[in-house]
Amino acid sequence: MDYMNQVVVFFQNEPLSKIISSIIVILIAWIIKIMLARLIEKRVTDAKSRYSWQKTASYSITALAVVIIGRIWFAGFQSIATFLGLLTAGLAIALKDLIANLAGWIFIVWRKPFEVGHRIQIGDKAGDVIDLRPFQFSILEIGNWVAADQSTGRMIHIPNNLIFTQPICNYDSGFKYIWNEVPVLITFESDWVKAKEILLNIANEKTPPISAEVEKQIKRAARKFLIIYRNITPVVYTSVVDSGVMLTIRYLIGAKERRGSTETIWEAILTEFAKNDNISLAYTTMRLMADQNNSTSAKQ
Questions:
Q1: Neighbours of 205 (CB within 10 A)
Q2: What are the boundaries of each domain within the chain?
Q3: Percentage of the chain surpassing pLDDT 70?
């Protein structure tokens, strides 16, 4: 009998009962979270949709658990709004950086400057967005020591608050194509007119055709942003530099196809130039010009 009384007294201890209730809520939320994750894994086949559903379910269950635990510990308050107000005020003072990250996450979810799967650059970091969380987002890095826009294999975790202080470049939002340029330098002695004709033919043959979908994307982007492209077909520009004549191929390509298309174009260029003896690629050289009079005087 004394043992039962001790158990009753133990559970009547208010702080202790609140702790136990909170643990039970956390365990239930954790179990529901796992069950929903498995259910979504079985029912949703598309990887991107599955990721979105899992994240939404996880955040919803976590938020609900926080509210329930808050009600357990602050049952004396007249409304949950009072509790949330006091909690927010305390967090704003003690956890300023975390609050800024949470505000950044809300901005990302609301305004959608980028989404999972988009290729972005923020500050000096660039990569494909692979995860969005309340306090940070993760990208799979591209560039750096790897040539062109290909993955390095490193995952970079970036605090959400940086979207308020760093410029963001989105390769995929609005208009899913970028302008790529392939500079080709030939010698001054080369037949640059013939070379330019060859490069333009290669650009038209080896780059993706401008489809109706591309034109539709451009018109859609122009309605939302001040984007005006008068010419979207491949073009070759001519300029002169110190080492020769620079012929630059410019064309539209998908953001994640740049390196592959550049390789295809260069292979075609090397093949075609090899067939023309009057066209040579230029490289840095040094020429010595002898003065005939001075050399004659020297010999004398």
A1: 12
A2: 2-94, 113-170, 177-274
A3: 73
